[in-house]
Design a protein that fits this description.
By secondary structure, the protein is mainly alpha-helical. The chain has four helices and five strands; from the N terminus they run H-H-E-H-H-E-E-E-E. The strands form two sheets. Strands 1-3-2 form a three-stranded antiparallel sheet. A two-stranded antiparallel ribbon has the order 4-5. The longest helix is centred in the N-terminal third of the chain and has 32 residues. The radius of gyration is 24 Å and the shape is elongated. The model has no long low-confidence stretch (mean pLDDT 78).
Amino acid sequence: MGSSKKALIRSNIWTFSIGGALLIYGLVMIYFKYVRDINLIGTIGLPIGGAIIVVAGISNVLTYRNRRERALGALTSYERVSLTQLSSELKLSDKQTKDIIVDLRADGKLKASFEPGTGDVLILEVNGEPPMAIVPMSSSGLPEHEEKYKDKQLPKDNHYCSYCGSIVKPEDQFCNNCGSYLH
């Protein structure tokens, strides 16, 4: 699980906890005020505020899931794409896009790495399937947008760390770049 996903889960737990507590306390307060005629500390606005916080938490979860699905959908169309182009297509910042890619790799839904020289995203698999890039081909047989990278192509028979995208040997137990367990 990526660090941004852990932070999102932590913040959503707090959001739901605080919102739920306000909502429940507000409903209890309303019950005692109107049914038992006992005034508790607080205002009638507490359940409304609590409900708004809970709805905001639900919105955060749905937005995060939507962004991940949009990223997976976009990545199925490319074998190689610049982070800036992908971010523009997803209408996210480069950092948000990078965090989603790292989370998807950590969850095993994406096998991809970042080209060290250009920062391009190299997509090997999306949900266990190779990307289906439909692009014009050049005279050399490479897609036109990859013609300038033909000397920099990574061999596809390499093994990659699913967490950081580094090339690893098949017999390695741990990634020499990030230290993640590989098997």
